[in-house]
Amino acid sequence: MRPMKRVRDIGAYDLVELTEPVGGLPAGARGGVLELSDDATAMVEVTTPDLDAAERIVFAPLETLRRVA
After folding, report:
1. 15-67 is classed in which CATH architecture?
2. Within 13 A of 59's CA, how many CA atoms are on the CB side?
């Protein structure tokens, strides 16, 4: 069983980093939260690594995000 992660308060416009792969993106990818879809998912525009516009948006579970700024 995996240990439960603590989810810090993450809101719109926060800079976040993926702590594990999501939607084909590697752990460590960074971007900004555009909006919270529900209590458990954020729409993130990934800025690092550099991606095509269509690949830049990912819906990530909050438990896979770490706020960096």
Report:
1. Roll (2.30)
2. 6
List Cα–Cα distances, 33 to 3, 24, 49, in angstroms.
25, 18, 15
Amino acid at the residue 42 = A
Q: pLDDT tens for residues 19-62?
A: 999 988 999 999 999 999 887 999 999 999 888 888 899 999 99
Domain ranges (residues) in the chain: 15-67
Instruction: Specify whether the CB–CB gap between 51 and 30 falls below 8 A.
Output: no
Q: Give strand pairing partners of 44.
A: 33, 58
Cα 47–chain centre separation: 11
